[in-house]
Amino acid sequence: xxxEKQQDKGITEKDINEIANLIVGExxxxxxxxxxxxxxxxxxxxxxxxIKAEREKKEKSNTKETEIDVVENRIEENTKxxxxxxxxxxxxxxxxxxxxxxxxxxxxxxxIKDYTEKKIAEVGNNExxxxxxxxxxxxxxxxxxxxxxxxKEVVANLEKxxxxxxxxxxxxxxxxxxxxxxxxxxxxxxxxNEEAEKLLTEAxxxxxxxxxxxxxxxxxxxxxxLKEINKKLKESSEEDYLAKxxxxxxxxxxxxxxxEIQNEEVLRxxxxxxxxxxxxxxxxxxxxxSKGVEWWNNLDNDKNGKLAKTIVGAGLIGASIFxxxxxxxxxxxxxxxxxxxxxxxxxxxxxxxxxxxTTGKVINNLKENWGNANNTTKxxxxxxxxxxxxxxxxxxVGTSTLxxxxxxxxxxxxxxxxxxxxxxxxxxxxINALVGSLDEIEKQREELNKKxxxxxMWKSVTNGAISIASGFGSMIANQIExxxxxxxxxxxxxxxxxxxPEADTTVAENKPIEKGWWGRQIDKIKSIGNSKEGxxxxxxxxxxxxxxxNPTEGSNDVENSSTDTTTVAENTKTNQIPATEGGKxxxxxxxxxxxxxxxxxxxxxxxxxxxxIKEIKAETIIDGEKNVGISYAHKASLLANKDLTTKLGIDxxxxxxxxxxxxxxxxxxxxxxxYMDKAGNQILMKEDAIGKISYDLxxxxxxxxxxxxxxxxxxxxxDVHHEGDTLEKDLENYEETKLNKTYANIEKAFNxxxxxxxxxxxxxxxxxxxxxxxxGDDDSSYLENNLKNTGNTITKPDEVVSxxxxxxxxxxxxxxxxxxxxxxEWRKLNEKGLKDLLELFNKGGKGMxxxxxxxxxxxxxxxxxxxxxxxxxxDFQDFMKYREGDLNVINALKIYKDVIDQxxxxxxxxxxxxxYDWKDSLAPNIEFTEKEIKELNIFxxxxxxxxxxKNLFKTKYGKDxxxxxxxxxFMNTKEMRNIYxxxxxxxxxxxxxxxxxxxxxxxxxxxxxxxxxNKNILTDYLKALRxxxxxxxxxxxxxxxxxxxxxxxxxxxAVAKIKRINIDPxxxxxxxxxxxxxxxxxxxxxxxxxxx
Amino acid sequence: MNTTQKEVREDIxxxxxxxxxxxxxxxxxxxxxxxxxxxxxLMRTLPMLSEEDLAKYEELLEKNSSPExxxxxxxxxxxxxxxxxxxxxxxxxxxxxELFKK
Lengths: 1092, 102
Prior knowledge:
The structure holds two protein chains of two kinds. Chain A has a three-stranded antiparallel sheet. Chain A is built from 52 helices and seven strands. The radius of gyration of chain A is 47 Å and the shape is elongated. Chain A is 63% helix and 3% strand. In chain A, helix 10 (257-268) runs parallel beside helix 44, helix 16 packs across helix 18 and helix 43 (930-945) packs across helix 50 (1045-1058). The N and C termini of chain A lie far apart (98 Å). Chain A is mostly helical. By secondary structure, chain B is an all-alpha fold. Helix content of chain B is 77%, strand content 0%. The interface between A and B is large, with 130 and 81 residues.
């Protein structure tokens, strides 16, 4: 508009602005300017008005900004001062002063707030006018308000802090002085009594809460961690278990071959006693042990030695927790891992432990809060630290316990069970007992070590150790433990320790039978821990003693025994058989009076209930035997309790003296309780039950029979059998079923065939113990009586079992004279007795136990009958010759029955019994085909690669068995032919059952990969193989990186066979094994992976 | 240290509560427990050695060999050596648990 006017009147923009500014600034105009104003007054006045308006706006805006700055500065400064003062006061814990200080601060804050709000309102009223000139103003005001609110919150928090600090102070005072009063708090904090009381209450609650939370946190953390550890333990144990050459489900647990060899070596010189290897070895071992202990102790003198000792010590401790290969991450054979594990694992473990620097605070915390620490925490701390002393006892007793347990196998299974069942969470120790027992236990250990210098003691230990290692029965070890327990002065004993009646008497006076050394240590340690007087003899007046329990008056026999083994066996045997006097039972009353520990009944108790272990009767626990019937324990219960026996309607005197009567009565009882059925099937104890489970016979409240199975160590009732129960099917893990065997089969055979039943054969329906005797779980007293009645001194097989001589795992399933007589182990082991037996047998059995004679006769009859039935074919006679080694009654029966059924020794039977290629191999000069030679060389190579197998074969067949270029020598052993035939049979089975493509996949796969990939086919079979074979079942991926499945199967089949592990080829390929996912596949048709 | 060893280390620290032991007690207590287990292991392993191996064993002692060397020796001579160690160690734990069960 100005511009338009300017253009009209000839005036410039510059002229207009200049004139207008002069007018607004009230300055004088020049003449020229006045003239221009007159001409252009309208335009210039508009410009003047515009300039004035702008100036006015600017002035207004400047005024508001100044005011806002002032407000903001005031707020910031005053609040800052107020907060600082409040913090200062809060630090001094002066509540009242703080409040006083806060009051003006709050007032100031309020003032500031009011002022600011007022200004904001003013600004807000002019918002429309101001906004265009100062658009950031509102935002600034909002920020100020927010800041103000924040500052107020800080003030409020300061108040809370003050309270919290007061509470913390009170908690601290509470920790120092739990009795602190509200008055003290009131005074210290300068607060009201009411408030002090409130704070004190709150502080106490907080203290407890924190403690609980801490404990819960620890416990939760421990729980989670331990859960993981337990998972590892389980996996580790399973792996470990897989690596063990033992089979839970097999009654005939194989024994590591190296121990068999070693055992052979020991036994070969056994009869030479002190002059032989055994005698020398025990002395040497004693010296070696002393040197080892001395060397270990001397390691402390050297810094490096001390560290190394600690490292190894930690490894030894840690060994209980983790699998062998876990430290090193290897899963190779045990042998190859030993070095690595010992070195790297221990070093890694120990360096980790010793460099763990989280002590200090944690330790102090533990000390301060020991009372609140959870049990696991205590237990583990104790185990490693404060419990070291107890560890000494524990560890030593661990050895003793292992010995007493009976066999390494049993121990291992038991330990696995421990790991699986109890887990770590359940460990619960008494810290006081542990700490209090430290020095005492160390002292005991030193005394023991001194005693171990004694040759005879070492002989016992050595024998025990070998027994353990070999899986032999360990009654002798029980004797060791017994002697060690009672501190028998072996050095001063004029008679062998096992034969010292005085020693037994001493024991009788002091030691309760139901508790071994370990049990007494528990009492002792606990008594120390409880600051009570030691009362290890507590209960001696009411508990029977070892000698009490077995009042063998005919002790001359024992004293006159020529070998320790025999002596121990007989001595030990007296622990388990009815007392005798000159071969006749002692008056039963005496036995009962002396043996009863506690006759208190336990009616109507239930599974899971826990009883006082003092109530457990010693005679109800079978110790040291294997596969013994539960009737043994029950019989012992009745012998020990005349009242109970009478209550059951049994003639006690007759029961105690007449074996046949006792057997009949026991059979009735066992059938009533479901431990046996009328067919002769029965429940037997496994190793796990030995010395662990009490089978206590009683009557319930209704007067009916009842049997409690009680865990000896915990007192927990594991199972209860009632009168009327049928044969138990859901067995405990320490029991096994033994189906009707020898007698039933013999009778069946007699009934079905035309073989005349030998005169005097006793029906299995009539006899229990005779039956069990034939089945290997003999009744010692029955045989004892029979033996003494016949007046001879033959060492019977049952004695052999009891004297650690016969590996329980190798007891033939059927009592088999053929095997016994031929077995080099038995012959060497108890040569005199077996020679006598053989001589008697060769003389027509004159003087033999009638039972034994009848049994052998029946085998002979069956043998002859089978040959006759085969038509006297030469093939069959060859076959029988071949089989004579394992021709026991059952096998003879099977063969006989088959030959009868098939009307001769048919081709089918030849195949069934693996006869097809043995016939030729029996010839002196065998000519193998090229294929056979190739296969046999592979097979031989596999055998040779296994050092243990190789040694065993050399021991059995001579050192030249593996001579090069002498395949005939190698094959001309029945063992080898058997193995060869066996693995061929397996491979044939594989061929038959698998379609070609699958067969090739299986055969050509690398064993390691195959197993790792967990393929369906054969997986279960392979798993079973690994369980059965242990380390030998692991594919060879070290030396034989390319071991294929076919080679692997050949090898493991051979290994299994030589280790007497039965691998049924049918097991190899069940429907599930072929393909678990295939439902329409049958075992009779080839597996087709494409078939759905 | 591989992962497995690390896990094992943590497990042992947790399981044995090593951190709850005063540092000056750790080595001593481990030594004491280790001594007992060692003696028990010795009791079981020495009878398994042949005369020749016993002589080698004594030779090792006379040469003041390290504990690791001795363990190596047993490991080589006795295939089930680790089994024995484990049994003794587990027995220790088991019996301790049972002994001091409240």
